[in-house]
Amino acid sequence: MSINSIKKIFFVLLLFSVSCKKNDNSEASKTPSGQNAIAYAHSLAIYKQKGYSIVKIINPWPNSDKDFTYILKEKKGIIPDSLQKYPTIEVPLHSIVTTSTTTIPYLEMLGVEKSLVGFPHTDYISSKKTRALIDNGAVKNVGQNERLDIEKLIDLNPNLIVAFGVDNNNPMLDNLKKSGLAVLIQADWMEQSPLGKAEWIKLYGALFAKEKEAQKLFNQIATNYNDALALVSSQQNKATVLYGYMYQNQWFVARGNSWIAQFIKDAKANYLWSDLKGTGSQAFSFERILIKGKKATFWITSGLFKTVADFGKSNPHYSQFDAFKTKNIYTFEGKTGATGGTLFYELSPSRPDLVLKDYIKIFHPELLPNYTLTFAQKLN
């Protein structure tokens, strides 16, 4: 799969109490005993029990009709008979293979990045810390998401492979399970709430017996995010925002309930497609975008463009937009790692507080005079 294909997939996706007792044969984990450790995420639930945890992955892909339940068993934990039918994962993990760059920051934040032994297409990883592990041979390239190298994975024999699916047709995941490899399906990319995405660090806290550390880290991120919200609470939504760019004769815009739209709303700006119901993205023709976005004061685009001139060369019709004429164009994809991995794709889900601050800096620069943009870059 090409870099451009991966980026498009990511872009579309981006915009897009019953007690469990031994010998109880009732359907368990639908309403497990204990409090769900998850407050914001909609596709993740974690119920801590004595000696084990119940993890539920809900709505793992669009229009999904199935959920996944996993049991995280501690060393001396005893799993009730009613939960034996679910996959059991021994924790804490000592080795892991993940298939999405969004997991890399979670591992690093928890200080367990050295447990990563494999990753598909390692060039996509931008973190300097994990890139050093790759360069030293500690992290093996295990193919690509849709064509994982099963033989290499069998040789690595990780405690767990954390993968994701875009639909219910994924023979690669079935082949991994048939090979005796433990697989967990995650769905952080399905979250549309900024703090909902970040809360997935708690899954890795549970996998590595670092629940307290994960909770502390998440609490700080949530505090930072809420502090940023308070900073702009009295501001007026004066800025109007055009989003996206032409891709193969179509212009994809984030729907009004999407992750991106939420950031723009939280940063107190007027997103032009905030009334477009749903999550994910929707394609429009250039003409429809021009009618609605011609007079937008800001343009948030994508790609590796550095200058307005280069951006304009990619499509001469861009010059019709006011934001192009005033050079008020920003991209969040310009910062890359040593091998081309995009920092925003990797880090932004786990650090929504920094994303929000970037947006506030763009729309209300006077509120953050000493803040340096983390992801965003203005085209010069």
Oligomer: single chain
Number of beta-strand segments: 19
- What fraction of residues sit in β-strands? 15-25%
Question: Roughly what is the average pLDDT, rounded to an integer?
Answer: 90
Q: What structural class do you assign from the helix and strand content?
A: alpha/beta
Structure description:
There is one protein chain. Helix 8 runs parallel beside helix 14. This protein has 380 residues and is of the alpha/beta class. Strands 7-6-5-10-11 form a 5-stranded parallel sheet, with helices on both faces. Strands 15-12-17-18-19 form a 5-stranded mixed sheet, with helices on one face. It starts with a helix and ends with a strand. It has 14 helices and 19 strands. The chain is globular.
Question: What are the salient characteristics of this protein?
Answer:
380 residues, 19 strands, alpha/beta, globular, five-stranded mixed beta sheet
Structure summary:
With 380 residues, this protein is α/β, with parallel strands linked by helices. It has 14 helices and 19 strands. The strands form five sheets. It has a five-stranded parallel sheet, sandwiched between helices.
